């Protein structure tokens, strides 16, 4: 990716994140007004999720800034791994919001349910639903286009917020039409369960990234390229490893050449294979190869206790 394209990608990601933060603050104010107008436990659950969302987006905004910093002496591979920390933080915040919703809804039910102005609360919450739904899909679209885990995680959180609002709209509408007040906290419980699942999913994705879990689809794709290219060039490979950096992938493998081949020709072949792998994937890939002679390479690795996984 050239500098102009990289600058454009960063500008698009920064705009999307700043838009998310601004709308998140606006939605928090809107839902807070709706809660104070109604006293609804369901609407309180929606507002609580928005508090968590604003905190998470603020952290994600900083994480996006940090991920765009170039490599330095202390961080030789750059700062993109912060993407997984950001996703994990957002997941934990969602889980805490679910716990708060369950606690507050139960407390309100026990102390006695009092709800008013449900028509106003319904209109305000429905407005938040429409805005967050559009924003969530936009963030995920930009996140996929720019391969940004931070934006995709934030988009999922916004959509979780939208689903929360949808559940609240349904619950408040049913409570309004039927007059049965327990529907309000029951709706809040359902909302809490829904966002709890989303939060656990984000934490799981974060841990997998931090622990460098291999992507089976990417692994198969690289293996197919290596097998085809090595057959064509009459060489061998082993030691394939790869990991997700948060905004791309890093790939490493060894290529085994005949002893008679010059280092210049071996390097030319290795570079061609590297470019083939880069071009086959939509996301940025940093490929590193280690060139070896076929003769005695197994003994050398055995002596040095090197272990590889293909």
Descriptive account of the structure:
The chain is mainly alpha-helical. It has two domains: 208 residues, Cation efflux protein transmembrane domain (Alpha-lytic protease prodomain-like, Up-down Bundle), CATH 1.20.1510.10; 88 residues, Alpha-Beta Plaits, CATH 3.30.70.1350. Helices cover 71% and strands 9% of the residues. It has a three-stranded mixed sheet, covered by helices on one side. The longest helix is centred in the N-terminal third of the chain and has 36 residues. The chain is elongated, with a radius of gyration of 25 Å. The model has no long low-confidence stretch (mean pLDDT 81).
Please summarize what this structure is.
The chain has 310 residues and is mainly alpha-helical. The protein has nine helices and three strands.
Distance between the termini: 28 Å
List the helices and strands in order. Answer: HHHHHHHEEHEH
Mean pLDDT: 81
* CATH hierarchy class name of the largest domain: Mainly Alpha
Q: How do the strands line up in the largest sheet?
A: 1-2-3
Shape, per Cα inertia axes: elongated
Which helices and strands occur, and which strands form pairs?
Elements: H1 3-38, H2 41-67, H3 82-111, H4 118-145, H5 149-178, H6 183-210, H7 216-233, E1 236-244, E2 249-257, H8 263-279, E3 285-293, H9 297-303
Parallel strand pairs: 2-3
Antiparallel strand pairs: 1-2
Question: Features of this protein?
Answer:
310 residues; mainly alpha; Alpha-lytic protease prodomain-like; Alpha-Beta Plaits; 2 domains
